[in-house]
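User: Could you walk me through two proteins back to back? I'd like the raw sequence and the structure tokens for each, with a short line separating them so I can tell where one ends and the next begins.

Assistant: Of course. Protein one, sequence then structure:
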Amino acid sequence: MLWALRDHLEMTGTKFGCGIAQCGACTVHVDGEAVRSCSYPVEVAEGTEVRTIEGLSPDNSHPLQKAWLDLNVAQCGYCQSGMLMAAAALLQENPNPSDEDIDDAIDNICRCGTHLRVRAAIHQAAKANQ
């Protein structure tokens, strides 16, 4: 699905990272669930709702996007669309996650090591949604 999104639909916010569903840079939502698009067959997505980072909010007003900016989460930024999509799926399922819930759900790899800021941003967004 990753290449269909990027090459055919020109939705380049979803990134290619490892290609083996380990890093999470390619995370999108399929029917509200976070999936790694690099290993998700595009034909399986037929008839489902697929949301990429471009669909998280039209104007960067999603509470997670605001928290990411407020807390300067991104450094290089490459993994951030996948992180945001994983975090959005988590908050949809668990609107008030603990640190342990976040650590369990967000297994995306960030080479810059911003995981503590990611956790703080998820907590901030959760509070904004209450």
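----
Protein two, same layout:
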Amino acid sequence: MQRTLEEWLDYQLRTHAQAIAMGLDRVREVARRLRIGKPGRQVVVVGGTNGKGSTVAFIETIARAAGLRVGAFTSPHLLRYNERVRVDGIDASDVQLIAAFERIEAARTTAGEEIIPLTYFEFGTLAALLLFEQSNLDIAILEVGLGGRLDAVNIVDADVAVITTVDLDHQDYLGPDRETIGADKAGILRAGKPCVLGEKDPPSSVLRHAYEIGAFAIRAHSDYLIDSLERGWRWREPGFEIDLPLPALAAPAQLDNAAAAIAALRALPFPIPDAAMISGVADARVPGRLQKIGEAPEVVVDVAHNPQAARQLADWLVRNPKPTHAVFSALRDKDIEAVVAVLDPQMLDWTVAGIGDAGVRGMTGEALRQRLLMQIAPERIRAFASVGAALAAARAAARPDERVLVFGSFHTVADALTSG
């Protein structure tokens, strides 16, 4: 009997002993058995600590406005697994994903061959590559899941690599500091190919690796510049400049993401008309990034869940002042204390919630509250079992002219979106 998509996903969570297993040998061997070729005429691989999903969206939207056929693989999803694989802006169907998973399962368990264990993310990566290969794409955009060097996406050679930012996250897997993490993320670079570095001061480990392998580094605020204008902004490099509207994506960091996307597209062998860049920057959308979901009080959701993202969120709050109540939940392995320290000066109070669908990485609302009592006075923090309950309580406490900011993990934002 054929499995449903949900049954396939449950199976994938159980079929490997570890949720995260770094390394390319297993996934590369299954790809060999599947005879997976290049997923598009050109491949853009996007890595980094924050800004990956937004940068993918800018590349995708601009390229589609230019008339190109584009596939995008992103993770994690917010509401439906199908969001992870898109062709020409349309999410993959259950039928397409199931057919891909069936092929992957047959390949990894081929009679007479060693059975290859795959993680949930590796199944998804291979499914995206299979669907893209069948789709006659001009550009395949692949978002790195974790790190770079040993991420499943890195079995594909990038024609252009993008590293958005490098900061502290997933230190258990990637290392304790920016230099070590940057060296891992630089693993997506390829010799003789362009790599866009989207922050002003990337770790020296990234630059060193680019120079060592002969990758062509295109650096933000150096090889291309971003100028603020009264009613927008200007992207420019020697011999070319274009005036652009502000992105609909609200955070100040989105200018850097949009600029990196333009640099990546200009490094590809496709003509990108000015009109496509203008409309693509204006039209790109990513759910869960400073997304407004309510009024009176204003309710905004954001997936900020590490210190760098928290700093960017604090910057937005300073630029958009309004009395703000925090609704927060995060996975236990995140640097929760650092996130809260950055944002607490902007918050009236905190309503924290549990995450119940994240396995051992989840925690109860009360456990999160206890963890934060060293930073937040007891009268300013209360706990609820679920994000939905926490959001309802914060809304009830907020005045119509105030704001409720729901942030933390993708689980947090997804729960807020579904609870209304």
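The chain has a mean pLDDT of 93.

Let me know if you want the two compared in more detail.
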